[in-house]
Amino acid sequence: MDRIVFLISVIVSVSFLLLLPHRLWQLSQRRVETRDSWHGHVKAILAVVFYCLQITAELVAPNRFASPLLATASPIAAAGLIFLSRLEHKRSVRPSDLILIYLVSSLVCDVVQLMVPSLQPLDGCTGIVLRTQAVAKSLLIVTESLAKDSTLLDGGQPVPPEEKSSIFGRVFFLWVNPVLVDGYSTRLGSHNLPNIDHALSSEALRAAILRAWTETLSTSLPLILAKSLFTPFLSVILPRLCLLAFRYGQPLLISFAIRFVQSANETQDMGSFVILAAIFVYTGLAISTAVYQHGLNRLQVMIRGTLVGLLHEHSLAAPSELYGDGKVLSLATTEVEALETTAVMFHETWAQALEVIVGTYLLARQVGWLWPVPHVIIIVCSQISRYVAKNLKSRQTAWNFATQKRISMTTAVLGSVKSIKMLGIQDAIEEQILSLRHQELEKAKQVRWMMVIYNASANALGMFAPVSTIVLFAILATLSGRSLDTETAFPTIAILALVTHSANMVMTYVPRAVAAYASFERLQTSLQGARFDSPQEEAPRISSSRHSSSHPEPAISIRNLVVPSNHSGGKNILDGLNMEVLQGMVVACSGPVGGGKTVLVRTILGEIIPLATGMIKLSTRRVAYCAQTPWLPNQTIKQIIYGPAMDLDANPAWYTTVIRACCLEQDLAIVPGGDGTLVGGQGINLSGGQRQRMALARAVFQRCEIVVLDDPFSSLDGRTEEQIVQNLFGPEGLFRTLNTTVFWITNSTHHFEVADYVIILDGNIQEEGHWSQLKVKNHQIAKLIHHDDYDTPHPNEDTRRVTKAAAGNVSDASNANGDLSLYGYYFASAGVANVAFMMACNASCAFFMTFPQYWVKWWTQDEGNNTAFFVTGYALLYLMAWVSTNGIMSSTILRVAPNSGLSLHRRLLETILRAPLFYFSSTDIGVILNHFSQDIQFVDKQLASSMSALATQVFKLLVQVSILSTDQPIITITLPFCAAIVYVIQKVYLRTSRQLRVIELESRSAVYSNLLETTRGVETIRAFGWQREMAAENMRSLDLSQRPWYLLLCLQRWLNIVLDLFVAGVAVGMITLCVVLKGTTTGGQVGVALTVILVTNTTLLRLVESWTNVDISLGAIVRLRNVERDTPQEDGAHHGEDVMVGWPSAGKVKLDNISASYNENSQALINVNLEITPGQTVVICGRTGSGKSSFLLSLLGLLNIQSGTITVDGIDLSQVPKATIRGRCFVTISQDAFFLPDASLRFNIDPSGMVDDDELVGILRRAGLWLHLASGLLSPSGEHTHVEEAEALIGDGICDSDDGSGRLSNEIHDISSTRSGAVLDKPLSLLPTLSGGQTQLLALARGVAQVKAASRTDRPGHFNHPYSDNASPTKPIVLLDEVTSSLDAVTETAVYDMLLDEFTNRGHTAIMVTHKLGAFAARMRPGRDVVVWMNNGRVESVSPTITTPSSPHLV
Hints:
Elements: H1 2-28, H2 38-60, H3 68-71, H4 73-91, H5 97-115, H6 124-145, H7 161-164, H8 167-171, H9 177-185, H10 202-215, H11 221-228, H12 230-235, H13 237-262, H14 268-317, H15 326-339, H16 342-367, H17 372-415, H18 417-423, H19 426-479, H20 486-527, E1 536-538, E2 554-563, E3 574-582, E4 586-590, H21 597-604, E5 613-618, E6 623-626, H22 637-642, H23 652-661, H24 665-670, H25 688-701, E7 706-710, H26 718-729, H27 734-737, E8 741-745, E9 757-761, E10 765-769, H28 771-774, H29 779-784, H30 813-816, H31 821-830, H32 832-862, H33 867-913, H34 917-922, H35 925-967, H36 975-1016, H37 1018-1024, H38 1027-1076, H39 1083-1126, E11 1149-1159, E12 1162-1172, E13 1177-1182, H40 1188-1195, E14 1200-1208, E15 1211-1212, H41 1218-1225, E16 1226-1230, H42 1241-1245, H43 1253-1262, H44 1266-1270, H45 1281-1290, H46 1303-1314, H47 1316-1321, H48 1332-1350, E17 1373-1377, H49 1385-1398, E18 1406-1409, H50 1414-1417, E19 1426-1431, E20 1434-1439
Parallel strand pairs: 1-5, 4-8, 4-9, 6-7, 7-8, 13-18, 13-19, 16-17, 17-18
Antiparallel strand pairs: 2-3, 2-5, 9-10, 11-12, 11-14, 14-15, 19-20
Helix pairs in contact: 1-4, 1-5, 2-4, 2-6, 5-6, 9-36, 10-11, 10-14, 13-14, 13-16, 13-20, 13-39, 14-15, 14-38, 15-17, 15-20, 15-36, 16-20, 17-19, 17-20, 17-35, 19-20, 19-33, 20-39, 31-33, 31-39, 32-33, 32-35, 32-39, 33-35, 35-36, 35-39, 36-38, 36-39, 38-39, 43-48, 45-46
């Protein structure tokens, strides 16, 4: 033994010397990091002392086994340590790992030599030297481990605490202690969390995956991911092999200890070796587990950062999508989170398979030729695992897809909640989302059944394999005249437990790997889709002299451009287009709805893919773009205008000029926060006009060479519009001054005068030239353009409405201190009976899984007298355990999880959709989406399982402690002490982990919001060239999210190693007692105790982990309950009263002294008195901020009514539920058309489902949309001849397709009738794309369908009111909010004709807000219809004509 200790000591020294030169070279290349201090001097002195002691030891007590060369290894190593210590102290921010490993290894050899009696030195002098040497090493270890915070030089980059920590601090997670102290004593926040390792930064991870994506020829995303994380991926292999060795050291230790206790001839040295072996095995097990798990945690964080970065990069580069901005969120929440643990699955699979091989070898040594018995059961069970793996992928994919559909629709709904409330379709939307939720749970049920089957198989393996092996061995032993002895039984049980557990884990990870591969495929398919590949070619830059050149170069040049339709059989949207725009020119483009104007804009920006033929050439890649629907991220007004690439303190004079030019001064003067006001998600805190002017200001502020404007003035009143046009396009306008090239989509005639060139577009350029030439050239051209004889100020929905929106804050206060009521809340949602059955199965399982250990003790003491009895009892115990585990699994994932998930989702959805409008303006959409994604997924996938696991571990621990106390009564004395330690540990841990989890969820919401904003604004981002800035913003938000998550994972590892060391102490203490008190303990008692400790260690860890998981998952319940409890509701506790059947039947509206506000600081209407007679059409006019749209919102119950009453047909609206008001009393057609892309066309135009197919087709035909929407499905063979002929007859697709021509019209009608159901049932996203004007026409068609649905007296109680056969039909009031803002003159005329036919002529009262009165003037009925002029929230006058009043405030 002395020789072995000496050889180990030499190996340690030689290894240190071999590594020393490379480390010295590394340090010599670095700069000095620390200043001189007492710390460095003390280390130098101790190093010299250590060297002297090494020399002294060799002189005083030379080893008899040592050659002269080997004898010098230790002194030379000590000398090298002196130089290395000095250099490490000066040039490294962390203590030296090499020095500490060398010193600890050397100290272990000294301790062994001093503890084992036969190795102790015989003479006193040698003993003194060895003990002094051990003390010097210990002191040197302590000083070398100290952090260097106080000695680090200033001016360097901040070093994360983990990087500054010693190897002991990293292995035992000592650097986490300050976080624990802060979390226990104070409130943690993102501002006081320490930074994490630089290797985990989003920037580094993003660069690595993009480099691997570019360089790797393989298209396999798993291989690309492995390449980008190659080094950290391999770094966990060594600690995993060590973990394997220490795990199988446990059964060997059990056998060793039993043999020692039972043998009367063992020496004192053997007892010392048993104790040292226990220390080595259990300490090594704790350390190797911590290092391995920490490596996997780092990989988990890296995988998430890598995939989110890759997903965001793809969203910046992929083609923009008109529909489905929830797709990227679904990929981030479902697929990426499913792939975070892929490294765990990979490493555990090979490691567990290796453990099976090692365990089989050890098992063969114990039971001989019976070793194949468990493998037979493994093979049988693996067939079930194979079946599950084969069928799981498709089911998991279907579940993920169903989840994506639900989240995508929820995202779309939350982004347009104002429109939904105005339309009165929130009940229908709720039913639609709940239907998707039911479909999602049905798909989940198929996966869960597969997991129940697999669980039964896996548990059968874990229970019946040990039973079969032990039973067969006992029977054979009995037949041969022997009995089952403790030295065979308990080590065999321990080995079998490890083997079957490893085999189980392999079969567990196989289905999980298959499910993960499905996520890989889906993510890879998305990433490998058509990437953004701009067809633009950048022309050489024009020098600054171009301003004076008589021959300016073209800024935009298009040749032979052909853009095909996005559906089979459709005609080209743009066909052979040729266009050239010279630098500095302002070109106005006009044309009919669907003529390709927006498509041309997107093509210029490089957004239309595929581009069939043609060439686009721009003088610059960076283009200022103002979209028809502006993209406004949830930032302050100033941040939006400046854009992400500019410092907010730069160019204040230019900023003021732009604000003035875009008429934003008055808006900024009114809002409390000025330009520091948050605009809310998608600009919800702004009116339509304010959103357009802010986007326009952003485009102007950037001073790009080319500006593309897609109808940017459609929501502005005439006065504001005219002023902005002159400020920008006039002779002294900003665009003229900057010599900016402008391509401008507009249909307003009077603006064409300021343009240098006008293009009339309808699939191709129909006419072009200066407007003075075109306006008299062709009557058809003139008809396409607006002639606004009457321009009135357009509503800005009251500029005072802009309020500073506070970011949503996820409150977790009740959970921070523990709240038992949460369990009641959750159990009620899951069903008390279901929970009770689950708990009963857990208790039963815990008993039947643990008691067999004690049963084996009795069996081994029986000496073979009752083998049949013990065999039968042993088998029955495990059979009952197997039945219990199946009951746990089925009750947990088939009853508790789906019931609670469905109930809590329904309550959450009802709460959110019934919240008032101001809730959405003050709560970030990412926070709300977190509830529907993260929190609901916690409920679906984690909470029930965590609750069940916690119950199982609690019951198991109770049974194990009872058995251990019975077997070793002396341990009972330590139970209160152990319980107190565990209680303190979990209390400190849980208080901090809860806070970190809350911070992580809040910061994760920011990542989701960033992904959503990028997806929604990708066209604008790419046009301005802001990809790099948006990537930086994503990396910043991702880093903020990764930090609390990584700290939470490190906190879990801290908990694991603390509990592992605690259990190791108990085990070592028990073995020490057995050694010291040898002769008073039997081998059976030792075997039971060590076997129970082996599983108690796991149980204790699983208990705290389960407790933690339950606590974390209950955080989701806290948030869901808080949302339900704290979110204000529109109707409050008073839900209104039922109204009479057929209400409203006349449509009389009366506002009596109404004052309303958006909030307490924002007055919208003041003492408004107005009476509207039945069937009357009222046009609301006024200048910006006069209160026109506020008037409509007050009618719909979206504003706070401070005083006065609104009655409809004599019924006070304050007594009627808001849903009834919006869905029955009013039908709203808004300029912000809202549609669900993943829902069917039928649902989008008839959410109530009350209108039959023929009527829906007729409405769409009347709106001129049916042929366009049905063009891809009219002919089963895909031919489109009929469509082309019909369009030729109908002309522009605007007018009614029934033109009276006879045969062809009837033929088209017959074809469309036979296939109308297929068109109506098709998702809107799969139908031909609609232009902005066509989208507005579809909104009008929906309004007509809503009126028809509301007017029926034979419909079922859709509004929960009784209907009688003789009830008069409901006649809803029609609200029109800028319904023609995006339409050309011809379509506008057709729309007004349709409004008259469907609403006015049928006796409906109509209230219209518009600033385009030219086309409507001739349709006003003298003596009946009126114009209401508003100013500053008051009704200024009521006029029977549209003549502008003389009041200067209204002009």
